[in-house]
Write a structure and sequence with these properties.
Layout lengths: L3 E9 L3 H8 L2 H7 L6 E2 L9 E7 L3 E7 L3 E3 L3 E9 L3 E13 L2 E12 L2 H30 L17 H11 L5 H13 L2 H5 L3 H4 L1
Antiparallel strand pairs: 1-8, 2-3, 3-4, 4-6, 5-6, 6-7, 7-8
Length: 207
Amino acid sequence: MEPFRASIDFKVDLPPNLLWPVFSNTDQMNRAVNLDAVDYDEPPEGSLIRTAHSKLRGILPFSWQEPPYEFVTERYYIIARIMNGTPFRSYSFSIRMNPEGKGTRLELIFEIFARGGLGNWIASLAAPDILEKMKKSLSGFADAVIASRDTAFAPPGKTPRVNQRQLIDCIKKVSPAVSSEVIEKLEFHLISAPDGEVLAMRPFVLS
C-alpha cells in the first residue's frame, strides 16, 4: 500500500542559519505546542533504535520504535517512527528549509503507512489539521526570533510531570543559603526546562 502523504509550504522572514537552532530543538517545540510527553527506554546494547512511550490526549497509552533522526544542518530533518498496535504501521515527519530571498521557504511533510483503510481515513482527516497547527507554531517561533525575544518558546500549557516531594526536599536544602528570587528561578528551570538541559545543567551558565 502506498503511503498517505500530506504537505504544506510557507515562507518566513529568516534565513535557514537563524531558523535551525530553534526548529531543530524538537523537545522544546513539542512542549511549546503542548504535545503529550514522551518517555524513552534505553536502547538495547549495540542498537540505536529506542522504544518510546506516550499517551494520546494524556489518556490512551501507545508506543513506537524510533531510529535516530536524519538531518542535514540548516537544510532538513526527518523524524521516523515505527508504531506498535495503532492504525498506522509507521510514519515520518520532515521539515525542509530552502533559502528564498532573505528568508526561508519551509516545507512540512507527513508520510503515513496505514494498516488498512481505517488508518488512511484517519490520516486524511488528521494530517492536514496537524500541518496547519505546525505552520502556525513555527511561524510564531520565527516571529519570536525576529523580535529578539529571550526565548522563542512560550511556557508549556501542560503541567510537566515532576516528583514534587523530591523537588520540595531539594529546595529546602538550598533555601537557607540563597535568596528567594534565586530559589524561584531555579525551581522554574527544574520544572519547565527540557530533561536534557536539567540533567546536564551548567550552574555558571544558568546563573
